[in-house]
Design brief:
Elements: E1 5-8, H1 10-34, H2 38-53, H3 55-66, E2 72-77, E3 82-87
Antiparallel strand pairs: 1-2, 2-3
Helix pairs in contact: 1-2, 1-3
């Protein structure tokens, strides 16, 4: 069986981490403000859950920010369910 790899650069990772967070959060915020009654609470809980589950993405974005002067690549090994980070020397 062939291994599956995907190497990404810093900008690609930032896009993949931020775009879903922004879009889904905007949708939930819209629903919180425009749905009636208990739906507001349900959408608020979903928004909270979604935001807290994105904490790992923000931690990795912070890692990229702290190392912004370096060229860092991330490599995901889907078969082993591992992520590797490498600095270009």
């Amino acid at each position: 069986m062939q291994k599956r790899y995907h190497v990404t650069k810093s900008l690609q990772f930032k896009i993949v981490a931020l775009i879903p967070f922004i879009l889904i959060s905007m949708i939930f915020l819209f629903l919180v403000f425009y749905l009636p009654g208990l739906w507001k609470w349900s959408m608020s809980i979903f928004l909270f859950a979604h935001t807290t589950m994105c904490a790992g993405d923000f931690a990795l974005l912070n890692f990229y920010y702290l190392n912004r002067k370096k060229k860092i690549y991330t490599w995901d090994d889907a078969d082993e369910k591992m992520a590797y980070f490498y600095e270009e020397i």
